Amino acid sequence: MSSNNTVALAYSGGLDTSIIVPWLRDRYGLDVVCVAADVGQGEELNGLVRKALASGAVACHVEDLREEFLTGFVWPTLRAGATYGRKYLLGTSMARPIIARRQVEVAREVGATALAHGCTGKGNDQVRFELTYAALAPELQVIAPWREWDIRSREDALDYAAAHYVPVTATREKIYSRDRNLWHISHEGGPLEDPNWEPTEDLFLLTQSAENAPNRAEHVSIAFEQGTPVAVNGEPMGAVALLETLNQMAGLHGVGRIDLVEDRLVGMKSRGIYETPGGTLLYAAHSELEQLVLDRRTLALKDLVAPRYADLVYEGRWWSTEREAMDALVNTTQQRVTGEIRFKLYKGSFSVAGRQSPFSLYDERWVTFGEDDVYNQADAAGFIRLYGLPTRVAALKAREAPTPTMRFAATGQEPVDVAAD
Question: What residue numbers bound the domain in which 129 lies?
């Protein structure tokens, strides 16, 4: 394999990347090495190597990155409390930096001089992939077929696949664009492009509807150590097993559906349906635990950092000093975020059933409405007098100030004497 005519392609086996293989060969005369990252796509990876070779690739690398995806990318984002567009838990956004990094590593191993991806020119993923390339392999050429070829729709892509004998599973009848990993599954395209269209139940793959969820509630407890989830229902688990367990439990009870009209980086609004069952519970549990163990000002600081962290992840700026600096801040805040949160799941919703932590700042002796011997209620009078001092001073000064006699007209003209009105 010549180092002068090899390209490493980020490969999913979906419609777009499948037809990119012969297109790169025909358009540029390149040997195509496919790089597929297993971040939890499940059965989508079955037969992937065979499919890539049948499409014309000279090799296909499939890498199991599930554990590192969760511990190195998802858990830091969770600990930061990052949420984009008020609801999106960043499932696709978090996966792109680790996929692109592995693609760069394989490109170096095989001596490739170019990197390629199947992202469209309308989406966010092109930015996420290419910012990773810029950070980790700035010298390699980048090829983005969707910005070059004359294919303009999924129907065109299906026609191209048929003409080049490329095996694909997409059809004109089921034209949804989906992205799946351990954290979530996203659904876009087709009838979803109408924001007024209500999704039908056959769209959803990870969650049941509230109507079909069990008629009996189920309790689940999630334990954290320094902000990282470590156990479910008292059983210690690794990252992959823990999330799979929560996905199954929350999905069974219809928890974790999000319907969002979001703002893409390129400026347009798009509509997507996201299923994030286990992640929804983890975000809520982590937030509840922080509320129990962090002081008011530290919580407020975290609330300031969270949206900026979310923007960074969404915009593909993972490989940056900014992210490292925010991680350092978040890590400091998480030192005492250890404990357990218990939820009750029922019919598409969940509620807190209990919370505990060895670092809890909640002390019943101070807040009880019953008799106590630690709090002198008379102290509140002095506190209120000092706390309200600016208000009292402002009110007293207002009484002493002369009555205004001049005002400015709304048109910006000369001052008008009130008495002359």
Answer: 6-66+88-176
Task: From 363, 379, 404, give the residue that closes a domain.
Answer: 363
Tell me: the pLDDT tens digits for 22-52? 999 999 999 999 999 999 999 999 999 999 9
Residue 55 annotated as catalytic: no
Q: How confident is the model at residue 417 (pLDDT cuts 50, 70, 90)?
A: low
Pairing of β 218-225 and β 228-232: antiparallel
**Catalytic entry in 125, 323, 355, 357:** 125
Report pLDDT for 172: 66
Average the pLDDT over each of 12-16, 88-92, 319-323 and give the range with the smallest value: 12-16
List the Cα angle 169/172/177 in 5-degree steps.
65
pTM of the prediction? 0.91
Cβ atoms within 10 A of the Cβ of 266, count? 13
pLDDT for residue 307: 98
Tell me the pLDDT tens digit for each residue of 125-179: 999 999 999 999 999 999 999 999 999 887 898 899 999 988 887 666 666 788 9
Give the C-alpha separation, 375 to 139, whole Å: 66
Q: Which residue has the higher pLDDT, 227 or 154?
A: 227
Distance, first Cα to last Cα, the chain: 90
When divided into structural domains, the chain yields a total of 2
Catalytic residue flag (residue 96) = yes
Report yes or no: 93 and 84 within 8 Å, Cβ to Cβ: yes
Residue 16 annotated in active site: yes
In DSSP terms, 84 is beta-bridged to 88
Task: Give Cα 127 distance to the centre of its chain.
Answer: 15
Q: Which of 12, 18, 55, 177 is catalytic?
A: 177
Known catalytic residue at 373: no
Two tokens at 114?
A: 């170019």
Measured over the CA atoms of residue 357, residue 359, residue 360 and residue 365, the dihedral's sign is positive
| Last residue of one domain, picked from the residues 114, 143, 176 | 176
CA distance 112 to 7: 5
Residue 332, φ and ψ in degrees, nearest 5: -65, -40
CATH number for the domain harbouring residue 34: 3.40.50.620
Closest CA to 309 of 93, 70, 66: 93
